[in-house]
Design goal:
Length: about 260
């Protein structure tokens, strides 16, 4: 986190894609959401959707295990401006000391994708983030300078509930803000008082010592965030809409695990 359309909550079923096929299409991804919403609407009206199960689906917990998702591990990341011991990899866990303020990046740039990541702060008031579409120029500047700092891009905030307590500021929250850093984005409402951040529509985050689940969907310049199974924030008209994914170190130990990504054609 850097200190300084109301949407229908779609419900997605896992789209099937064989490993040898090309990335899942946006039409297929959208179709699964439309079908789920139609079924839910029929349930709400008391009309079963043909012969389908009429049990209401309450949440969309995308676990990243569907066909087409790939795990991200040590071989997928590169150092930018962190110390040699800032990040360690242990199985599917990526552990961060929080020192110095810095990032690691994916070796590959991404455009349209779905990302699943779990995270846990180890101390109260922990601060971190996931950068989407981080710009190559800003990454290069950080690497050359070799000093603490963060890139430009869209940040998906990873902030412990104790940050700013007992009187948190009114321009950020701890439940999944999405906001631009040196780039362009039109935030979805509710919007922060300064007009720059998409505030979460619900308080879904869990405090330090507990795991949180993020599902991030970034397609055609639009970013949407689900926190622990419910969509809460995002933004559209992002520019640029291609770049690196980054994990942020910002002052406190944090662990990420279960990073899985699926590119969307």
């Amino acid at each position: 986190m850097l200190i300084g359309a109301t949407s229908v909550k779609p419900l997605y079923r896992k789209a099937v894609m064989k490993p040898e096929q090309t990335p899942i299409s946006r039409r297929t991804l959208l179709g699964t959401g439309v079908a789920a919403m139609a079924a839910t609407a029929a349930i709400a009206s008391g009309r079963p959707h043909q012969d389908e199960d009429v049990t209401p689906i309450r949440q969309a917990m995308i676990d990243g295990m569907a066909d087409g998702f790939l795990a991200l591990g040590e071989s997928d990341f590169a150092k930018v401006n962190s110390a040699d011991d800032t990040w360690t990899f242990d199985g599917d866990a990526i552990k961060c000391t929080g020192q110095p303020t810095s990032v690691i990046r994916t070796k590959k740039q991404y455009t349209n994708f779905e990302l699943v990541v779990q995270w846990m702060h180890h101390k109260p008031a922990g601060n971190s983030g996931v950068f989407v579409w981080a710009t190559p120029d800003s990454i290069e500047r950080l690497a050359k300078a070799g000093k603490p700092g963060l890139p430009q891009g869209i940040e998906v905030q990873v902030l412990d509930l104790a940050y700013g307590q007992p009187t948190p500021e009114n321009w950020y929250t701890s439940h999944g803000d999405v906001f631009p850093v040196g780039v362009k984005m039109q935030p979805f409402p509710p919007v922060s008082p300064n007009g720059q951040r998409s505030f979460p529509s619900k308080n879904r985050s869990r405090g330090h010592g507990q795991w949180n689940h993020y599902y991030i969907r970034a397609i055609n310049g639009e970013v949407r965030l689900w926190v622990n199974g419910e969509e809460v924030s995002g933004g559209t008209n992002c520019d640029p809409r291609t770049g690196f994914l980054c994990l942020e170190s910002e002052g406190s130990p944090v662990t990420f695990r279960g990073l899985r990504i699926r590119e969307v054609a």
